[in-house]
Prior knowledge:
By secondary structure, the chain is α+β, with helices and mostly antiparallel strands. It contains 14 helices and four strands. The longest helix is centred in the middle third of the chain and has 31 residues, at 103-133.
Amino acid sequence: xxSSGIGGQxxxxxxxxxxxxxxxxxxxKPDQEIAIDIKNYQGIVxxxxxxxxPIVRGVLSFIDSLVLGMKTLTFSASFYEEDENSxxxxxxxxxxxxxxxxxxxxVMGATVCFSIVAAVALFMILPYLISDFLAPYVxxxxxxxLIEGVIRITIFIGYILLISCMKDIRRTFMYHGAEHKCxxxxxxxxxxxxxxxxxxxxxxxxxxxxxxLIVMIISMVFFFFIQTSSPxxxxxxxxxxxxxxxxxxxxxxxxxxxxxxxxxxxLSKPGMWMQKLTTKEPDDSMIEVAIQAVEAVFDWKTxxxxxxxxxxxxxxxxxxxEGFEFYEADDQ
Length: 332
């Protein structure tokens, strides 16, 4: 399989697909129509030299994914507000008065910051504090680092299992599966149809779930070798190394997504196993939403021609057939 470079995420009753600086959000509305929003997002840092610098690009990509994730989730949620005619809360009114047109951006930034702090507290600091209780019973500091890593991964798996019990989250995981299936269908050289997407794999090496698991595994390696006797400095080191760990993890995921080596496939297996928890089999209506999100920002036919999967003649025939079907629908 060849990497197409596209990626995405599941949102509320929909899919976001991103191709370079352009992204599209396709959402199945309550009336069953599909709404599509296409926009550009250049990232928090515009300088291409900085954005392409190894390790640094991983940190920026992680922050960008949080910001863009909040934007797309907000868009998808707007179709499912319980009472569209309800008046803004006093907090909303105060924010609008204080920040005016920048109110939404301020709320978005605060939410992203809170998400990062909560994730660091839950998956980095809490495992350290729990493992610290075991310190009197474990002589080896190396073993303590491994125990902390196991606790961190256990908390992560427990968190995934807990939220997967929620009905809305299970549907989101189904859309997550539809997103992966679409990308795998394209990168396998198959035409992007509901039938082909349905039989494609719901696991992908570039998945964010794999990234998070790799972060935890790599953090275990870092903390195994970088140690100090001071409890305060151990916390400080863990906080300072978060960007480095995220950057290294991103480089691995990026490399894994473009490599077919046996070693990389073996190293990618833990992340692929974790995706069994965060991706579920979608139904055809979800696949349809995912296909529309892909086609809004990515010309998969041209890409498959460039990769040698399709001939130009085959691609032209597909476009002609699609055009014919479109006009037939109009005539009716």
